Amino acid sequence: MIQLKRAYEQVSPTDGYRILVDRLWPRGMSKEKEALDLWLKEIAPSTELRKWFDHDPVKFPEFKTKYLLELQSGKAQAAFQELVQLTKEQPIITLIYSAKDEENNNAVILKEAIEKTA
After folding, report:
1. Which of 27, 49, 55, 109 has its CA 20 to 30 Å from the CA of residue 65?
2. What's the rounded Cα separation, in Å, for the pair 75 and 116?
3. Distance of CA 28 to CAs 33, 56, 105, Å?
4. What Å distances lie between residue 15 and 33, 86, 105, CA to CA?
5. Cα–Cα dist 48/36, whole Å
6. What are the tens digits of pLDDT across the range 12-60?
7. Cα–Cα distance between 29 and 41 in angstroms, integer?
8. Helix then strand then coil, % of the chain, to nearest 5
9. Res 118: pLDDT
């Protein structure tokens, strides 16, 4: 089971294995507050892609296409394979992200990609 949660929401026992999937640490949050099991920076969109997208919902379809391409190469591909493997080992995984938009962010794309792979 894969869940999504904003970094600013309270940690819950039902979160299971918590993985931060952003390249940047969430503003104003401490490592203790986040209670992460893993920070997979390499799986996050590249800095260039993140800046281009700028959380603009109009750009989300193109962002999704470009991000999925990034996940197919280099360090992002290795991180994606690691994440897929973790979903097989952990009963519950929560992908943690800091974007305000809960529908148009990289964690949503990751969850969908993992579910298609499994």
Report:
1. 27
2. 20
3. 10, 23, 20
4. 14, 14, 19
5. 26
6. 999 999 999 999 998 888 888 889 999 999 999 999 999 999 999 999 9
7. 16
8. 50, 15, 35
9. 67
- Amino acid at position 21, single letter: V
Which amino acid type is present at position 32?
E
The amino acid present at 40, given as its one-letter code, is L
Burial 76-98 (b: 16+ CB within 10 A, else e): beebbeebeebbeeeeebbbbbb
- Read off the pLDDT band of 117 (50, 70, 90): confident
Say how many residues make up the chain: 118
